[in-house]
Amino acid sequence: MNTARVLGWTVGCALVAGSAQAQFWAFAQDTGLTDDISNTGVAVGSSGFAGGNYFAWTADTGSQDIGGISPGNGVGGQAKISNDGRYIGGTTFNAAMDWAEMSRYDRNTSSWAGFGMIPGIGQQIDAEVSSGWGMSGDGRSVVGLGWTTLGTADAHAAQWIEGVGMTDLGSNAVGNSSRANAANFDGSVVAGWQDGNGRQAAYWKNGVEHLIFQADGVTAEQEAFDVSDDGRYVTGFGVGGFFDPGSLWRYDTLLETYESLGNIPTGESRVAGASISGDGSMIVGGTWGFGPATFGTGILWTEATGVVKVSDYLDSIGVSYDPGFVFAFASGISADGEWLTGWGNYDGNLGTTTSWVVHIPTPAAPLVFAGMGLITIRRRRD
């Protein structure tokens, strides 16, 4: 393996139409997997399972451990970051109370603040009372779940709001759990899932829960992963038929319409819109079969391109990267659409799985995404 692959490969390249330069970074192996990225190019993620910490990465500093608790050993959560890169949401351990709890990290003070349990109905299950899974764009809300006394291992979607505290978003199916995964810019629209009739995507607008149905009114196994800054568009995860590929989707909370966006020609049964841009015009994620998403293919959707491979999109706008790098999943897009992040590997070798970041200073239109198929330019090798 060459030194570039060990240390993290970086290259700048010219975009089409004389726009600013783009850059690609691949992290050192064993750094961890990214969950999100800000408008300022700060990527965040988990350094490992079963007790690993969160990390924050920038092009200038590389990856830095910020504490917190990665998923595992009875603890849930993921790292999410505010648009300006100051605040990070997740889960930390409260040593004084001997529990894990939803928390927020302030990069200005390099400190975590924990938010405890849902008032009145909260309880501890296994190691935690609550966990952080998403963050509003302004950083003033952290969302996730809180364990309750209302049933056996019954969790409710929960939201911490600066100046208000922890609030219960509830569950509309008695005895069944719910969870919040994301919030819009000001925290007024929250997206996640509801158990009951299987697992169903859901969103909460001003604290009121709404279920998301497919276009034909059918409930399918799915959950909402992200929501646009204005709260209008929601995207997430879904499963197709046993022999049929899943379809990426976008839900319009204003018109209450479900858009099935399709998949790449080689798409598999599972597909996820992991992250959506602030205006709802770009979605990134992946498609895969059985097993983890690290086995899959990273995808990107815009109105102009439809669903395409991340690699094809980057090729079409002239972004250079290691020719042996495989984009397995795109986990995050910044609100302004200029930063992408996700997971990949070298030459299909899962033993080399690592994270990647791409910066496109001025999001560029692809050279050609025509009805007859995708036409790309050849990837630069210099």
Structural commentary:
It is globular and about 55 Å long. It has two domains: 1-60 and 212-382, no CATH class; 68-203, no CATH class. β19 and β20 (233-239) form a beta hairpin. It is mainly beta and 382 residues long. Helices cover 3% and strands 49% of the residues. The strands form seven sheets. Strands 19, 20, 21, 22, 23, 24, 25 and 26 form an eight-stranded antiparallel β-sheet that branches.
Task: Supply database-style keywords.
disordered C terminus; 382 residues; disordered N terminus; 5-stranded antiparallel β-sheet; 2 domains; 8-stranded antiparallel β-sheet; mainly beta
SSE class: mainly beta
Question: How much strand content do the residues show?
Answer: over 45%
Q: List the total number of helices.
A: 2
Shape, principal axes of CA atoms: globular
Q: Using the CA coordinates, give the radius of gyration.
A: 20 Å
Low-pLDDT runs of 5+ residues are 1-19, 367-382
Query: What is the number of domains?
Result: 2
Strand count, sense and closure of the main sheet? 8 strands, antiparallel
Q: Quote the average pLDDT.
A: 87
Q: What proportion of the residues is helical, as a percent range?
A: under 10%
